[in-house]
Each structure stands twice: as structure tokens, then as C-alpha cells.
Design a protein that fits this description.
Strand order of the largest sheet: 1-8-9-7
Number of helices: 27
Radius of gyration: 25 Å
Distance between the termini: 32 Å
Mean pLDDT: 91
Structural class: alpha+beta
Strand content: 5-15%
Low-confidence stretches: 1-27, 150-159
CATH architecture of the largest domain: 3-Layer(aba) Sandwich
Helix content: 40-55%
CATH topology of the largest domain: Collagenase (Catalytic Domain)
CATH superfamily of the largest domain: Collagenase (Catalytic Domain)
Shape: globular
Number of domains: 2
CATH class of the largest domain: Alpha Beta
Length: about 675
Amino acid sequence: MTLTGRTPLLGVVALAVLLCAGAASAGPGIDLAGIDRAVAPGDDFFAYANGTWYKNTPIPSDRPAVGVGAVMYDLTSQRTVELIQRAAGGDAPAGSVERKVGDYYTSFMDEAAIEAAGLAPLRPKLDAIAAIADRRGLARVLGTTLRADVDALNATNFYTDNLFGLWIAQDLDQPSRYVSFLMQGGLDMPERAYYVDPFPEMAEIRTKCQTHMAKILGLAQVADPQASAARVFDLERRIAEVHSSREASEDVKKSNNHWSRETFASKAPGLDWTEFFSAAGLGTQQEFVVWHPDAVAGISALVVSQPLETWKEYMTFHALEHQAAVMPAAFQEERFAFHGTVLTGTPKQRDRWKRAVDATGAALGEAVGQMYVRAYFPPADKARIEAMVQNLIVAFGRRIDRLDWMAPATKAKAKAKLATLAVHVGYPDRFRDYSGLAIVRGDAYGNAERAELFEYRRNLAKLGQPVDRSEWVMTPQTVNAVNLPVMNAMNFPAAILQPPLFDPARPVAMDYGAIGAVIGHEISHSFDDQGALFDESGRLHNWWTEADLAHFQASAERLVAQYNAYEPLPGLHVHGKQTLSENVADAAGLAVAYDAYRLSLGKKPAQIAEGLSGDQQFFLSFAQSWRQKTREPLLRQTILGDGHAPAEFRADVVRNLDPWYDAFDVKPGQKLYLVPADRVRVW
């Protein structure tokens, strides 16, 4: 899973770092053995809470990182594969969605059939590229590659090998309707920095990328693959140069650019947009929101300035790599050698069954999710989480009421937004209908292509329809959570609602410190530097007074400075501005979770557990929920392109909360100590 960031129209993700996790030792309670008591909590709270675990835990060879998320991810994968294998074994009736799930998984696992098919399934696409005779034909074939492949988890730079990213979402100006968002894409590597940054490490990766391209082209017996790869890489470098930066992509107001279909020819000349949109199934769409106008214009200009044959080589390379997971082993292995080993530092590819589970979930996610929640998410768990959510919402409302700097009018708007916040727990109210998706047992490549096209058409079908605020962007078996500012909604999938983040059998302080902080984080995203730009209907609208907004922004800038000081790698600091939204949500979310935890106690004292006070349980559970050990290449990728700070610095956000100081006797002179006036309290 690539961690490239987010945009507010798609989603704000709380736990993206956990998705790369491998096996880790953690149980439902506090991991006392993982604590390093040689470290003072006030010097490095992450190291205090996790230091012994960190020293003693190796990163598995098939993982770029190891962390607490593995407990949930691995358990969920094992449960899911058992459900899928039962469906694959013939138990599911012919034509049922369970049978489709089983057939997709079985086909993905049939390596002998994939090997025997060779490049034959891809041949029609390669032939179409080879037949391109002019720029009009190029636009037409490029249009057929447009997909709704903008992952809600990775929404800023669109780690997609298609030239542009497309997302169908609510209009920021008129949230009652859907509109097509067009965004930059077209790079094989995750972020423009990989192509343009002067760091020596980046120069080495660029060389390896070009070698990788040559190997992929060579496997397909393309003539002179080295020369072809050099031209493809140079084209990608030019595409990267016109891309918007990670920080610029966060500016919602500058990105909300409504273009009529007719204006593309004048604002982004070069690409034949009529042919492109017609081939993409958008021929009758009259309006688009262009999130990255400079990039769209720059890429369009490259269609004319760069040789037609180079574009054909570029498209051939991406066609060969796009579905590598269901192509002969040599393509799969080479893709992993670069994207896995070079870019994330992972030595070994995951077992095929694990990749098959992920691929099946990507193609038939809610069908798999329906099977999962039926077996593993009981109504009692859903009810307990919903009660926690309500406590957190009440606590957030009380924090709004206590703000002495916020004007009554702004408070009223904030409370209205909180009152209409839609919180979805476990699974969607209605699961998706996959009856229109054809899955053919034994046709792994065709299944992947048809599933991708099915999802694209499902998104296009939203245009002109009423907005569905209940729609999920995550599957129930996803170990993550998300806030959707334009929908003013949140998703908490079933798979994240399990130990070690959530366990009804343990003291409530631990649940509030772990999953409660996640819930608080997501609620806070509705009011962070991006979420605060959207009103209760999801409309892009400034509901703050000028003075209130200035106060909020001043607090946010203090948090930017706090994170700018962190240096995960020599000479490479955390980008406080890039990670601001997540840092605001971490700080506010933890504070809200603490208030909700105290609220849940009523007038009763907190339960002592494992020799720890309630507050100590709360803060240690929070810090241990962020335990993470990451290979340097992935850490570098996270710092450069992710909207989240590295996990250890997310754990240290406790330094902004007064109760943490009392719980661990933190004193002046210790490294994390902040005088009360310097503790950032955004909400």
C-alpha cells in the first residue's frame, strides 16, 4: 500500500501507516514487556512506551514495516482467506456473489494458467497501442485507460500509472450533486520528488527505475529495451516536472477549478480532449473540476511536444506493468523488485494467498466484507463502538462550548456541523450489487480488467444521480478509518474495531486511548485546517469569522513549527505544513478522546489495571497504538509524500495535553516538555 496522502473531497485517513505492518507482538491490554523503562516518558514517550518492543522486533522479510496494525491486518487476512476459500471450494451456489468471490480468488491463485496464457490476454491492448497513427488516435487510446483508480487512501498525488486520475464525488460548491474531478497522474514512482529532488538517494532510485523499465520492456521482447526505457523515463520526468507539489495539492480553494468541456482546448491545448473524453465514456459530460490545472495543461502540452513513438513506448510499458499481478511470474517479480524492494526496502514478496486476498478485496470488496461482518462483527461490538462515538461527539461539543476565543456565530456553525455528522460503523447500510460483474474461473487477467472497468462504470453512473451520503469508500475488512469532509461523514470499518485497538473485555481507559483516539481523530478532521473549510452540508464555505480563523491558523502554525523540528532521517525533517491536517486531528482527537474517557466514568474512579492509573492506561494505549518500525526507503517515501507524520512523532503529540504531564510526572528540562503556553490547543 502506497502512502501518498489525501485530498479533502476524497477522505482523511487516520491510520494509513498501519497498513504496511507485519507481525508484531501485542495483546488486547498494555504491553508491559514492550516498555523501555530506561527512557524517561518526558524525553521520548514513543520510546518509553515501545522501546523494548522496538529493539527486539525484527521487520519480517516480506514487509516494509512492522507495527501494531499487523495484529489486526494478519488476523483479518487469515479470517478472510478462510471465508473466501470456502466459497472457492464449491459451497457457494453458481451465480451467487460468494461464488464470484471464490472464482476470482481461485483464478488469481492459478499460477500455472497465468503462466500458460503469457501475454495473450494483454495482446489486444498492446496491438491497439501499436496501431496508433496520429495524435487523435493517441488521445483515443489514452481515454480508454482512464479509470476511477484514485484510491481514497492515497488521494493527493494519485499513485496511478494512468495519465490522469478520475474521481466522481460531490461538487464542493453544490454538494447535492456529483461532479467529475480530474487530477494529475501518469508516474511510475509515487511522487514527483522521486524525479526532481537532488538528494543522492533519489538519483540512485531514478537510475534503478530506468533499469526496471528496461527489464519490463525486455520481458515483452520490445526492440532495444534500454533505449526505449530511457525515452519513457525522460517522458515521466517531464510529466513530474509539471505536477503540482504535495503541499500545493492541499490548497482546496486553488484546486476547485470548474472547467467546461469546451474550455479544455484553450486552457490545456495539445491533447484532443473530444476524443479523450469520448473514449473515456465522458463524451456528454459538460463540466469537470480540474484539481491540478497546471499539471493537466502541462501534460496535455507534452502530448504534442514529445514524439508519438515515445508516447506509444510509454503506454506499452504501463500496459505491461499495470496488471503485473495476474501476468507471468517474471513480470510480477520484476515489478516487486522495484516497487517493493527499491521503493520500500522490502526484501521478499508476500505469499501469493495474501496477495490474492487483497486482489479479491479490491475487485469485490463489499461482497467479501458482507461475508466478513456476518462471521466476525457481532451486534454487541457495533453497539459499544456507537456508544463511544456518541460520547466523543458530546465531548467535542463541550470543547466547542468552552472555547473562549470563538465567536458565538462560529460556535453555532460548528455545533450544526457536529450535529449533522454521519458516523458509519462496521459496514454500510446497503452493500454494493455485483450482478453486472462477470467473473470467469480461470481467467485471472480478464477478471482483473473487468473488475476495474466495472468499478469505473459504477462511478460514472453516479453522474446525474442524487448524492448518496451513506456510501463507503472503505471495505468492512479494511484496517483503517476515514473522514469524508464533503459528505460530512466517517467510516469505521469492522476490521479496525478489534484488538489491540478495541476490546470490550479490557478497562475502558485503554479503549478510549486506542480506538477512541482514532474516532476523535476522525471527528476532528471535520474541523481541521481543511475540514473547517466545509460547512454542515459539505459545501466549500468559510463559516468562520475573520478573527476566529486567524486564531485557528495561528494555533495551526505553532503545530507546524513543532513538527518541522522533528528529524526522522539525517537532514530530512518532517514537513509540518504537509502533515498539518493529520497533526491537528491527532492533537485534537486525543484531547477529545481523553474528555470522552473521563465522561464515560461518570462519577466513578478509573479502574487500576496492571499497576497503572486510568490516565496512564489511556496515554500508554495511545502510544502503543502507534508502535511502528519502518525500513528507511519507506520512511523516506512517507516523509516526502505522505500527509501523516511518521508514527513515533504521532505518539509524541501527548506533549500538548496537560493530563499527560501529571500522569507521568513530566518535568521542565525533559525533551518533550512544553511550558503550558506552548502546548498547542487547537480545539
